[in-house]
Description:
Layout: E1 4-9, H1 13-23, E2 30-33, H2 42-45, E3 63-64, E4 77-78, H3 100-108, H4 116-126, E5 127-129, E6 143-145, H5 154-165, E7 181-184, E8 189-190, E9 193-194, H6 197-205, E10 211-214, E11 217-225, E12 228-236, E13 239-250, H7 253-263, E14 266-267, H8 269-274, E15 281-282, E16 294-302, H9 307-311, H10 314-327, E17 339-343, E18 354-359, E19 381-388, E20 396-398, E21 409-411, H11 418-435, E22 444-449, H12 457-467, E23 469-470, E24 501-503, H13 518-535
Helix pairs in contact: 1-6, 1-13, 11-12
Amino acid sequence: xxxxxxxxxxxxxxxxxxxxxxxxxxxxxxxxxxxxxxxxxxxxxxxxxxxxxxxxxxxxxxxxxxxxxxxxxxxxxxxxxxxxxxxxxxxxxxxxxxxxxxxxxxxxxxxxxxxxxxxxxxxxxxxxxxxxxxxxxxxxxxxxxxxxxxxxxxxxxxxxxxxxxxxxxxxxxxxxxxxxxxxxxxxxxxxxxxxxxxxxxxxxxxxxxxxxxxxxxxxxxxxxxxxxxxxxxxxxxxxxxxxxxxxxxxxxxxxxxxxxxxxxxxxxxxxxxxxxxxxxxxxxxxxxxxxxxxxxxxxxxxxxxxxxxxxxxxxxxxxxxxxxxxxxxxxxxxxxxxxxxxxxxxxxxxxxxxxxxxxxxxxxxxxxxxxxxxxxxxxxxxxxxxxxxxxxxxxxxxxxxxxxxxxxxxxxxxxxxxxxxxxxxxxxxxxxxxxxxxxxxxxxxxxxxxxxxxxxxxxxxxxxxxxxxxxxxxxxxxxxxxxxxxxxxxxxxxxxxxxxxxxxxxxxxxxxxxxxxxxxxxxxxxxxxxxxxxxx
Length: 536
């Protein structure tokens, strides 16, 4: 008899939801293996504390890509959560579902039950939106979503007005009937604290007798009998342990999940043999189709004060620190991405292809080992950022070693298509158009990045190749689809050709949604759990 009904590998956004949903009935015994440690850390709980987690190996996998020609040969830093809650414990907390058509695209790709009409009820069941329930928003669900539409910084409000002058409509709810426009971002923040998947889903479930969560438990390989998964081997505290289960669910994310499958013998057979791994299943799609949003900021020195003037000096830190500790309010209680929006670089497009970020701060001057959100530049800086919603560039995850503790090889292939270069060129020009509109224009002292000397198309392209990077949304490396020749899992998230094994996280996205990916990752955990229970 198996030790467990289900073993979930990874306590990230999807894994936390799986753990809660699969144990709710009390009928199933569930083991969660998480390589990282506890999420009970001050800078995890404090929303703006994520800057301190950006390079912290205690909570972060600290991945680096291979040198990327699309980024002028640079290696990009890819932070991913190595902690209960996964990347939902270190992210910027923006709650965006994506465009409704993204999910219709999933269904049209041969994944029944994943269209917008199917996922909307799931989102409404997940959410407890501070704005209240509606036909599109959820109320009373396990995940509280903050409206984040109060105490807006004056320069953020000015940027919203300037964007409207540049042609974008006002949009108070990007999870509402339309996505295009400019306005505040809803956040996974509750009571002044980060509302991660661990806080909303896993912690309540950990009170149940049928759930066991093991931290510091690094999965090294999946165990098989023939072509059926039977358990997981993992290392914890210097010991190599094994656990048996009726079903194994891999929920490690877009980097860890394909790595674990390959280490276990599921992947491109020739590649696996190169590292002395005996193939269990020749599946060339494992690790392929890597898709990620690329972005960058344009930055200005302002005549009016920004959050730099508050967060930089010691007395400002003291003031906002006391405000946060005593009242649970202020800049430390929210994401630096207070708002933004979505726009089209071509009016002929049927949906937005670019995401906008409005930030009343700047971090041009780096600090070693830290993303300097809490220590911004020593001047009044302001940034407008953007990222591409549906890039056509594709990368891959492959092994560097058969050692499960060595990071895999990440090839991002940023801006490797003419399409992605052309739309980013149009997008950065739009940032300057916003900054030239009132009431923002009169507050600008000078453009700092890229600077007014960068004007031609070639100069603008070289600049965004030099300064772009991931916006932390890697996906699609074990993608869902009906044909094992092009996909890794089916619509029920079962690995094609293998029994007792599923993948349930952002790696199964058939295509990358247009927006932040934490909401879709949580959705996959919710809907995956329903499909698993249906087949139990």
